[in-house]
Write a structure and sequence with these properties.
216 residues; alpha/beta; three-stranded parallel β-sheet; 10 helices
């Protein structure tokens, strides 16, 4: 991994004794937990710094939040990397990465990092009306979907939101978790769609993280 600065020199003027030799990983809140587990298991010198997962409901804010956190972390870490896909920023995140000399994970969104881009594309080509869940979204469904969309207060809005969807695919990293499976079934039932479970594990995410961190 490179020890070159990842931000303008004015943000990295701290003495070497105050800097960390580890890499700071600015992580999407929806990826932070599995990323941290992979980092710990692999023994990588990486510190995961998550941003709020609800930024996905306002993707126009993601690039600015990543920029602010990356600049802050660059003062105390030798390197900063970004554990986000584009995630609906339409290139704005790439502009920040170019400005600050950062690398990010590949793909258009987090789902690519679990299923793989070609596999995910096949699901959407087969049924464009596919609603996707990850383990994080299953666990947080009541908060990140039901509450954020106001369905807890106005359940009649469900059909307006989901009328063009035809199925739910759960990109499952932990298929052996019975409680998580029940939560996924409940999430699909809440929006009135059949559930398909696709076992993805963490393989694609781990490979993407390894490539991201090795590229330095």
């Amino acid at each position: 991994m490179s020890s070159s600065p990842t931000a303008p020199s004015s943000t990295t003027s701290s003495s070497s004794s105050s800097r960390s030799s580890t890499v700071a990983l600015v992580a999407c809140g929806a990826l932070a937990q599995p990323a941290a587990e992979i980092v710990a298991r692999r023994g990588w010198p990486v510190a995961v710094h998550p941003l709020p997962p609800l930024l996905h409901n306002q993707p126009q804010l993601i690039a600015g939040e990543v920029r602010a956190l990356a600049l802050s972390l660059a003062a105390t870490y030798d390197e900063v990397a970004v554990a986000y896909a584009d995630c609906g920023t339409y290139g704005a995140l790439d502009e920040v990465c170019t400005e600050l000399g950062l690398r990010r994970l590949p793909g258009l969104h987090c789902y690519d990092l679990f299923a793989g881009e070609s596999r995910l594309a096949s699901f959407l080509d087969d049924q464009p009306g596919t609603y996707l869940l990850t383990d994080f979204l299953v666990r947080s469904f009541r908060r990140t979907v039901v509450r954020e969309l106001g369905l807890d207060r106005h359940p009649e809005l469900r059909d307006d939101y989901f009328r063009h969807y035809t199925r739910v695919i759960w990109l499952a990293q932990e298929t052996g978790d019975a409680e998580l499976r029940a939560q996924a079934e409940d999430a699909a039932a809440t929006i009135g769609l059949p559930l398909t479970v696709v076992d993805t594990g963490h393989g694609h995410l781990e490979a993407a993280l390894e490539e991201l961190l090795a590229a330095g």
